[in-house]
């Protein structure tokens, strides 16, 4: 019997939440721990109607002190199409990229796959009724889910505080549910 090919996925967004990954990608997905991506910063770019706010992305930083923390998931190659759909790869919302992360409580680095916005966050898609001061902000709901995932994953306290201090746009106060279509 052939072994299934697995790879590491570095999630820095709402995909840090185990309930989201188990529901939308694979109920048997395995959290391998958390890691940091040195020399990168977390930004918010393209506006997303479903989340009512801007989506996160990573970008290389000119400041070597910048870091993005996230979760390492072990993903079976057979479920990668589901993860791609969840991230909107087919709709050119996100694109896959490979990064080298430093595994927490380990002196080792690991190669991992992650996603970044396909359109760099220069100007998010804004609707006429969205006030300019709300540009580049995630919805309240998205940010809450991101913070929940970071806390659940045991990311460092200072990073949790940093996430909690990100300004949101106040939207997403509805039911707290986001519909996810898995085809």
From TrEMBL:
Segments passing through the bilayer: none
Highest taxon of the lineage: Eukaryota
Protein name, per record: gamma-glutamylcyclotransferase
Organism: Nezara viridula (Southern green stink bug)
Enzyme Commission no: 4.3.2.9
Annotated residues for binding of substrate: 142
One annotated GO molecular function: gamma-glutamylcyclotransferase activity
Pfam families: AIG2_2 (PF13772)
Keywords recorded for this protein, A-Z: Lyase
Record InterPro entries: G-Glutamylcylcotransferase, GGCT-like, GGCT-like_sf
